[in-house]
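sanity check this record:

:::
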Amino acid sequence: YQLPYNTNMSAGTDGVNKHSVHTLVFRSLKRTHEMFLSDLAVLPPEDPASTRIKIACKIRDEFSHLKDAPSASSEQISLAVEGGHTAMQDGGGVEVWGTHAYPSMPGVPLSSETARQIQPSAAGVKQVMRALPPSRGEIEAGKVSHGIRDIHRKAAASGGPERIAPPQSKALVHMQGTRHAGTLVPRQAPSMPKPQWHPPWKLMRVLSGHVGWVRSIAMDPTNEWFATGSADRTIKIWDLASGTLKLSLTGHISVVRGLAVSERQPYLFSGGEDKQVKCWDLEQNKVLCVQTI
């Protein structure tokens, strides 16, 4: 089958303006120049007037409550500096300073009579020192190897005698009764027991009834029935001989993960992902008690 030739197509192309190759190349060069003219990595020069307005707005918005505050006198500044001069120093040359002097109550000017100061406690200084990185002297001291006596003394101070004489290793044993009593020999790896062969199992029956994965199973002590718990939130009781469904128990709101049958009473215990343990009375087919974990 041959399509007829459309005469309108040739007529429509006559109205298109045809440019020369020089015009097209010049137009492409102009567009490329406009595209790569601006370098985004180079920021434009800052305007001093705009920068001054920006700083003024920032001062007014964030520091308006401090802009007009009265300046502290020289006596207050010296008292604040000298008040925090009391410090505790450790052996490494690190000083822990107390708080700066402050008035005893709001509205009271800072003076030598009204100044208060809190000094750090010994426990606080030790906690701050533990959080600091080690000094150069401690690093150099750590590079020096310790003797056996120093290692035993530090182990006894930190963990007791068991740090010095650890229990016998699981991988190595001592040779006893030989000339080399202190020699260590590798322990032999335990050999895997060889499984006893039995004829292949035969599939007797496939039971269908759950609509979710079977997550738990429990057998009756008398071997007459068994129970299964599933992801469909139900517990089903099956006859062991015939494989027929005898009973379905509903009550959990999530997956039933565990089942257990009592050997003394006709009770069935079930646990689920709903954090509940239920005790079922199989004579009345109802829940006796519920325990939430």
